[in-house]
Amino acid sequence: MKEQIEQWQQKWQALPQNDQRALGILILFLGGLFLVYGLFVPAKSFFDGARVRAEESRALVQWIESQRPVLERLEPMAGGAQSAGTLLQRVTAAAEQHQITIKRFEPEGEGRIRLWIDEARYQDLQPWLNSLLQQQFTIRTLNLDALPEEGMVSARLTLEG
């Protein structure tokens, strides 16, 4: 490496004075171009893009904040949409989805219902109960009795919706 530098120095000194000056100016010009177009312009572009994205994000946050009252008004409606229909309609619709037959039902005050299921497969009953919980029902009481047939149960439960 040291030898190569010495060779370049010898070649430099072998050039006429005007060529050395012209080559020096050319090197400075190319170095300046590298600094401007290789470092400064990409960095400026990156920072300008970051500034634009930050402004867009601020605008989005402001829009979201401005929509907060609308969303707060819609939130109670979303709960109402989930609970469309009467308590009994919601329970029986979920029961039909899981092949559960409700033998008897009895309203128990406002928002409560008592159900009797004579024969159901436990494998069908458990997902039905889980779906009721996902629909914001509260299971107040649950009595399960095993039937002689394997995997079959009878159930009595009180739901609050």
SSE order and pairing:
Layout (H helix, E strand, L loop, with lengths): L1 H13 L2 H66 L4 H11 L6 E4 L4 E10 H13 L3 E9 L5 E9 L1
> How do the strands line up in the largest sheet?
1-2-4-3
- What structural class do you assign from the helix and strand content? alpha+beta
N-end to C-end Cα span: 84 Å
| Helical proportion, percent range | 55-70%
Query: Helical segment tally?
Result: 4
Topology, number of strands: 4
Shape: elongated
Order of helices and strands: HHHEEHEE
Could you report the average pLDDT, rounded to the nearest whole number?
87
Largest sheet geometry: 4 strands, antiparallel
Strand content: 15-25%
Question: How does this structure look, described?
Answer:
The chain has 161 residues and is an alpha+beta fold. It contains 4 helices and 4 strands, in the order αααββαββ. It has helices at 2-14, 17-82, 87-97, 122-134; strands at 104-107, 112-121, 138-146, 152-160. Mean pLDDT is 87; it is low at 77-83.
